[in-house]
Prior knowledge:
The complex is a heterodimer of chains A (about 110) and B (about 110). Chain A has about 110 residues and is an all-beta fold. Helices cover about 0% and strands about 55% of the residues of chain A. Chain B has strands spanning about 5, 10-15, 20-25, 30-40, 40-50, 55, 65-70, 75-80, 85-95, 100, 105-110. In chain B, a hairpin with a 4-residue loop joins strand 9 (about 85-95) and strand 10 (about 100). Chains A and B meet through strand 4 and strand 5 of A and strand 4, strand 5, strand 9 and strand 10 of B.
Amino acid sequence: xxxxxxxxxxxxxxxxxxxxxxxxxxxxxxxxxxxxxxxxxxxxxxxxxxxxxxxxxxxxxxxxxxxxxxxxxxxxxxxxxxxxxxxxxxxxxxxxxxxxxxxxxxxxxxxx
Amino acid sequence: xxxxxxxxxxxxxxxxxxxxxxxxxxxxxxxxxxxxxxxxxxxxxxxxxxxxxxxxxxxxxxxxxxxxxxxxxxxxxxxxxxxxxxxxxxxxxxxxxxxxxxxxxxxxxx
Lengths: 112, 110
């Protein structure tokens, strides 16, 4: 059972451009989290947005949440080669909040 | 800093062997998770535990079992390893919000 679905599956952009990734989910959430995974490594937590928040910033990251559309987006501004990674969203449901489930992720490639 | 340590980075086992993957966290986290990651399939939850001796099945528990005798340690057991269990295995721990991941164990079953 996939709780979050990322889109697109792959994204390739030039260094300096902005990258936007989307996440859709199906049921009511407590919060939604975004993670990054560098090749062959574990995931690293990037940012958490609560269900009563609409937008959150952290450095070059901007996350939005639209609970009416059950969707979230992650924007990375002024991308760098080091941002090349896979990005995953994890909606934490109100029912079963202890469970943490990820989707297939978005594979982001930043071209120099 | 929170540390989640998986016992092996790479592991090669034979078909039919009983395999133990160990995960230890040092932050007294209540929730621990085991995932497997395969190309094109993302991360899939195998089992998770929300307390000592407590466990719940994830999305793909078949062929696996888990053990949590102490809060800091969560073990994934492949009762009889098969080639279709060749994968990257990731352990994570969490309390309340963000999860912390281990470095992963790449298991090859031959």
